[in-house]
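Consider a protein example.
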Amino acid sequence: MNVALKKTAIQKTRIPESNIFFIRELHDKHFDATWHAHSEYQLFLVVEGTGTKFIGNTVKPFDSGDLTFLGPNTPHLWRSDECYFEPHCENISRGLVIYFNGAAFGQLIEKEEFGQLKILLEKVRCGMELYGKTAQRTAKLMHELVHLHGMESIILLFRILDSLAKSKEYRLLHDDMVYYQLKDVETNRINLVYNYAAKHFKYKITLEEVAALLNMTPTSFSRYFTMKTSKSFSYFLTELRIRNACKLLSTEEAKNIAQICYESGFNTLSNFNKQFKTFIGMTPTEYRQKFLTL
């Protein structure tokens, strides 16, 4: 069964009419902080920067080297960490993104030679993360693609897609295709909630204050958020905090688990340990040890 959610996103078109595909280099203090969607497939590589990505109803941290492949009309937001928004911050965010329209391939993908590509394009409608040697190889090819034009660029694009189609180094972000009905009137609501939560999750956030952002009562907001995301706001907030803790546990060896607990927005160590094991399936100590032994 498809995940049918009526969450809203700004709909953007990325490809010039004269092109089959388009590759774009991103270079700014932070990535676009707008929840949005478009009809094109998107392959996005984080070259530099850290933060949290919201894809469909999935929340996950991102770091340099993160490679994500999305199908059409899947709302998404790569929200850079809060430090990237500070006026005097010298950090930058860089990325490479390829957009292409499945219709541009016409009847090609119906031919036997393109069977694997057809399967790949169906899979990515669930959202796909690439890792390992596949991600490294794809990143290298994407950097090469920036400098190519004409037939050479098309050939390299198909090399990339062929490599992804044959790879087993991937994780699907959803169990099934995520379908969204896009309504512009709700776009600001989703953006307000996601960006507010991403900015303030380290502190106490009450249902009353987040409901006030949308001029709703707490009860109305709670019902609205659950309907749009298939999860309660408290679950979403805990998920956001746990993902931040995962990032710190794997990258900040100097910080102890108690520090990470409080920096991720939890009030007590016991609650942090309990919630972490519920979400991740292991304790924070076990999770950290997994990275230390790599």
About this structure: The longest strand covers residues 21-28. The chain is about 40% helix and 20% strand.
